[in-house]
Amino acid sequence: MMDITYLGYIAGTLTTAAFVPQVLKAWKTRSTESISLAMFLFFTLGVALWLIYGLYLQSPPVIISNLVTLVLSLMIIWMKLRYK
Questions:
Q1: In this predicted model, what pLDDT tens digit does every residue of 45-69 receive, in sequence order?
Q2: How far apart are CA 44 and CA 46, in angstroms?
Q3: Is there a contact between 34 and 74 (Cβ–Cβ < 8 Å)?
């Protein structure tokens, strides 16, 4: 049976990687018109809370995936505000 930690790493990698195409598209096109700022603000707050939770539990899969997702999400917010 697979160690549950590996499942956490796989889940974290997939959900984090899902944001990479959006970041690349916004960076390349310099357009974030179709992105909801409110949604990304709520999402980013949630990711930050998950990161704190992961730090509390000392869970590397939760910490790593949410740290990377937080950076990607903040990049999208930054581009949303910059490319208005």
A1: 999 999 999 999 999 999 999 999 9
A2: 5
A3: no
